[in-house]
Amino acid sequence: MGRAFGTVARATFILVAFNLISKLLGYVREAVIAYQFGTSASYDAFLVAYSVPAVLFFIINGALTTAVIPVYSQYSSRDGEAEAWKLFGMVFNVLLVILLVLSALGVLLAPWLVKLLAPYFTGETEQMTVDMIRIMFPLLVFSGLAALFGGLLNARNIFGVTALNAPLTNLGIIASVLALSAVWGVRGMALGALVGGVAYALVQVPSLLRSGFRFSRGFNLRHPGLKQILVLMLPMAVSISVSQTYVLVDRILASGLAEGSISALNYANRLIQMPLGLFVTAVGTAFFPTFTQRAADGNYAGLEDGIRRGLRVVILVCLPAAVGLMVLRDPIIALFLKRGAFDLRAAGMTQIALLFYSIGLIGQAAEFILQRGFFSLQDTVTPLKLGLVVVGVNLALSLLLIRPLQHGGLALANSIASLTSMVLLIFFLGRRLTGFWNLEMWRFGGLTVLASGVMGLVVYAVNSQSWFGALHLGNAVTALVQLGMAIGCGLVVYVVMLSLLRFEESKLVWGAVGRVLGRFGGGRRG
Questions:
Q1: Is residue 75 in a domain?
Q2: 458 assigned to some structural domain
Q3: What is the pTM of this model?
Q4: What's the first-to-final CA gap in the chain, in angstroms?
Q5: Which H or E run includes 198?
Q6: Total domain count, the chain
Q7: I want to staple 237 with a disulfide (CB 3.0 to 4.6 A). Which of 63, 79, 262, 488 is the partner?
Q8: pLDDT at residue 138, as a whole number
Q9: 75, 83 Cβ separation under 8 angstroms
Q10: How far is Cα 267 from Cα 40, in angstroms, rounded to an integer?
């Protein structure tokens, strides 16, 4: 068990490192976009146009990753690697045909897609959206193939190159905004997103070929492995598509609100995605191969332990992160976004969305880990059924809250739906793995809430000090000082609280700090 989790820890470290680079580039991307476009109708149009290929990619990526890893592992261990690679050569061909057809349909049906996704768009905003859908829909071909390549590399415990998706996409968008927006406006950013997606697909090919993959001609639709993959993928694809209706529902409803509502929701969601993308995705991706292996071996006690470990890690990170985002939303937005076209109105709209999105952060984090517990058991039907319930909750709450809270109501509905999903997943996974959620996890959750609450009070007290404004350092520098002091004090208090409450994870933190100090102080001792 120790060796397995050592592998998981190394994989998690690699993914966190790449995700950190990605998030830094993501910050630069959002800052550049905010400076250039703010919360404008043109950026609303880009986000709607990007929704369809992005949602389809998310569905294909999630479904492929869930199916590829267990099927590759099964064929590789039972029939040998050559047979596994032969199977996935056929999968590549089938997937390529499907993606080309979908891409062509997207380009042809662009005007009707805009009518469906943004029924309140008119005039130039509507035409911009149509143009950008046609520019970005071919992205689906390269993103879908990249998802297959990434799943195969992860199945072989190769994680570094597969984490380049967001960094390359971010670089493409940043370069296009800086170089093309003066001439092409927001349409130039659409072209940058396409270039980034193509680069991500191509950069994985050398690693894939070194691993043994070979492109092949034709495909056998009756191959049992292909049928097995489709059986696993279809419920998963439907399940993810159901969960992704959150995004589409928000944008359909927000298209009828004040200009910039879609943009404000997106900026706030990007900030929420920082802890999710940096830690949760890394933990879930690194743990999933271990989950599937233990489930395949019938080691359900080990699977329960793995899920608990993954959940503890993400809860320890995301609960205080949610509290921090709520309390510090003003200096965070001022530091990261408030410049150029991103004015006081844009900041106020984004603050409202960020407050309500933060409530559901822990639900999104736990959902990512819990779903992989079901997937490791090759159960994609239960998450699908629960997802349908949650979508109904989200839609009902969106319609109920949009009138009094405008775009903030959409964010709050999303958060309540995420928390509902977490509770349902815990309950039904607990029926499959009876030792998974035990008394110790309840104790852990309660104490984490306590530690995060104390941290939040300290952060609020530091952030409320009036002398920050008297520094006269400029808005950005003042926000940086204010944010740095509040986060620093909060982090110290949180780690101390974990130690006082005798959390197992606090020993790992202090042990890592001790090793680092030991290296700097006296190096290794023989």
A1: yes
A2: no
A3: 0.77
A4: 28
A5: helix 186-211
A6: 1
A7: 63
A8: 92
A9: yes
A10: 12
